[in-house]
Write a structure and sequence with these properties.
Two copies of one chain form a homodimer. Chain A has a single domain, classed as Phosphoribosylformylglycinamidine synthase subunit PurS (Mth169, Chain: A, 2-Layer Sandwich), CATH 3.30.1280.10. Chain A has 83 residues and is an alpha+beta fold. Chain A has two helices and three strands.
Chain lengths: 83, 83
């Protein structure tokens, strides 16, 4: 059984209001040393597949078509072995 | 300048309604081969620090006190070099 972990982040230059808000809040409660905060998504899949090539193809398609907005988001994924 | 990337995921056994909904939706639109989907958060920090030990301490504290709910969530982070 294979697993996939997908990291979805905003492309460079795309504004991140959620991250900016978090950054400001952390400053307000006294945390120093933060310059920028950006938020992304982490999607963990357990796949009913044993073939890595097939898994890669499925995850690539999911990322492109459903899980990300390619206009503003970028993604990276790794395929691993499940338990 | 250092950066930190924090992965926040639900602990094993904690229900993930968002992931379950996504899984069901993907099945409904015809994707086969998915067994489980779990959603997490990715938080990327750019730090105004140059000392790794200090950065690690700050991020550890942020994770424990602010960024995660230790009852249901777990976290992992890496410290990297920024541009």
């Amino acid at each position: 059984m294979l697993t996939a972990e997908i990291r979805v982040t905003l492309k460079e230059g795309v504004l991140d209001p959620q991250g900016t808000t978090l950054n400001r809040s952390l400053e307000n409660i006294g945390y120093k040393g933060l310059k920028e905060v950006r938020m992304g998504k982490l999607i963990q899949l357990t796949l009913d597949l044993n073939d890595r090539a097939q898994a890669k193809e499925l995850v690539e398609e999911l990322c492109l078509k459903v899980l990300t907005n390619p206009v503003i988001e970028q993604y990276q994924f790794t395929i691993g072995e499940g338990k």
